[in-house]
Design goal:
Residues 2-84, 88-172, 174-253, 255-335 form the IPT/TIG domain. With 340 residues, this protein is mostly beta strands. The protein contains no helices and 40 strands. Helices cover 0% and strands 59% of the residues.
Length: 340
């Protein structure tokens, strides 16, 4: 009596073949052939008189009868296996979508049909490593690359995904800082600072020491930022998808204090050379007398020489401006010329 096939599980698989199936029935002992349509199974083993395990050969989309042949004949052809057409995977997004040219960025690839992925490529270069999380997600580590964009593609038994806008990964060159201006500012922060360099586009973070600055304007060669509050000397760095830049130095300067002006009186009609004393005077950028600029020379952190210009008789407010801000005023008395 010929064998009888009752069922097959699973009952479908890809046209590429390679699906392991379990065939159940009766009279399967001594099977000499297992066929999927007209094609022999890639391999099979008889487990018992009621069960055979077989591997499907490659085939064409559609259903084919599964038969078992033994010395007593060939089974019925009423149980079928369905070959499903190969569907290539689709990449719908990357997170993050950029990283440094040195590679090493862990990227989450999302899409469809990602199960069974055999390769993930960044352009023409294979990912350093990858793991299939699910049919809709793969985690991959970017290899080293050159500055610019490359498509990320996934290969499965169903084919290779197409390059679409959402599948492009941007390799960013590392940012480089060459100058900072001004290089000092008040401890209260709020100073507008210009950073110049290269590869500064897409700056995600600018740090003054451990604190983030507010980024006001961005271009590939220049950043304008507002300094946070701070103290002492700190390093300034820029972070982009290309990595972290070299460091430049920024000095937080306390506001200047003026204590005395000597002499404190002089002729209103003429210029008077004076000595200003106080603290925090090293970075002085201006001396004003009632708002009018005066010439000056910084002698030390605690002393300056200045020239009071002519002006109206009476008290005049003398102030010093440094990188740390503007001091309070000391009063210089202008004396009118005597009337004869």
């Amino acid at each position: 009596m010929p064998p009888v096939v009752n069922s097959i599980a699973p009952a479908q698989g890809p046209v590429s073949g390679g699906t392991t199936v379990v065939i159940t029935g009766t009279g399967l002992t001594g099977a000499t052939a297992v066929r999927f349509g007209s094609l022999n199974a890639s391999s099979y083993s008889v487990s018992s008189a009621t069960q055979i395990t077989a591997v499907t050969p490659a085939g064409s989309a559609g259903s084919v009868p599964v038969t078992v042949t033994s010395p007593s004949g060939t089974s019925n052809a009423t149980v079928t296996f369905t070959y499903t057409a190969a569907v290539p995977p689709v990449v719908t997004g990357l997170s993050p979508s950029g990283g440094p040219t040195s590679g090493g960025t862990t990227v989450t690839v999302t899409g469809t049909g990602l199960t069974g992925a055999t390769q993930v490529r960044f352009g023409s270069v294979g990912a350093s490593t990858f793991s299939v999380v699910s049919a809709t997600q793969i985690t991959a580590v970017s290899p080293a690359g050159s500055p610019g964009t490359v498509p990320v593609t996934v290969t499965t038994p169903g084919g290779t995904s197409a390059a679409v806008p959402a599948s492009y990964f941007f390799y960013a060159a590392a940012p480089v800082l060459t100058a900072i201006s001004p290089s000092a500012g008040p401890t209260a922060g709020g100073n507008t600072v210009t950073l110049t360099g290269q590869n500064l586009q897409n700056a995600g973070d600018v740090r003054f020491g451990a604190l983030s600055a507010t980024v006001d304007a961005v271009s590939p060669t220049q950043l304008t930022v507002t300094s946070p509050a701070g103290s002492g000397l700190v390093t300034v760095t820029v972070t982009t998808p290309g990595g972290v830049s070299n460091a430049l130095t920024y000095a937080y300067v306390t506001a200047p204090v003026l204590n005395t002006v000597s002499p404190s009186v002089g002729a209103a009609a003429g210029s008077t050379a004076v000595t200003l004393t106080g603290t925090g005077l090293t970075t002085a950028t201006a001396v004003t007398v009632d708002g009018v600029p005066a010439s000056f020379t910084v002698l030390s952190d605690t002393q300056m020489a200045a020239v009071i210009p002519p002006g109206p008789a009476g008290g005049a407010a003398v102030q010093v401006t440094t990188a740390g801000g503007t001091s309070g005023a000391v009063i210089f008395q202008r004396i009118p010329a005597p009337v004869i």
